[in-house]
Amino acid sequence: MGLVEGFTEFLPISSTAHLMFASKILNIAQSDFVKSFEIIIQLGAILAVIVMFGSFLLKNTWLWKKITVAFIPTAVIGFVLYKTIKTYLVGNLVLAAISLIVGGIALILVDLLYTKRMAKNTQNGSIGSDESGLQNITTKQAIIIGTVQSLAVIPGISRAAATIIPAMLFGSSRKAAAQFSFLLAIPTVAAAAGYDILKNFGTIRESGNLGILAVGFITSFIAAIFSIKFFLSYVQKHSFKAIGIYRIIAAVLFLGYILVLIP
Fold first, then answer.
1. Three-state SS at 236
2. Best CA proximity match to 172, nearest among 210, 137, 209, 198
3. Residue 192's Cα: distance from chain center in Å?
4. What share of the chain has pLDDT > 70, as a percent?
5. Cα separation of 5 and 16, whole Å?
6. Looking at the whole model, is its pTM more than 0.90?
7. Could you tell me if 217 and 38 are in contact, meaning their C-beta atoms sit under 8 angstroms apart?
8. What is the SS3 assignment for 90?
9. Which residues span the domain enclosing 150?
10. In this structure, what DSSP letter does residue 154 have?
């Protein structure tokens, strides 16, 4: 589960959906502890972002305001709807699969628009710069990106996809959109995991499974480092079309698994 979380957290394929699918395939019951486990091990992936981008954030303090205003909408919605999310959304496998398909289609369409825009810019002699993309994200755009990110409370939407898609629609390069998604994950995921720990501290402590949490955390951290390096390299050479197609295929296969193969 730690490997699944670490490898998928920063890819626009929904780590939550993949954790839910993995739990089903591994026959792990969706208890309160397991639901908390799937949220808390995300801290391992966030630690990987801090390790890899910490010095970058310290040198570019102008980013803090954009990250903060983008975080606020998700924080408010997550806090208000926490009980509903954990009771009715987390663990809903069919909803996760449908959301994967919808998000996959959206990712493909947005990437096609991006490709057309870049081709037009090339013809006009005004090719966008990947390095300047983060600077070009305005405060207003950051708020909108954060608001769209709040849709990721629905399993299968993907927090990464929900931040990358609007950023690209606003004109960011694939690389800049991915970087902003990584950085926005720090307060977003840390707050979600921290709040879950506070709400369920007694359940977590009484479970006697702190060792399992530690293994999941460490594994997630290591896997996330490899995932971030891979994704940054990938987006500079490839489109999101293959990722969108993967989301659709993965969802269809899993729907077949739970609806046909399981009695």
1. coil
2. 137
3. 12
4. 94
5. 8
6. no
7. no
8. coil
9. 2-261
10. S
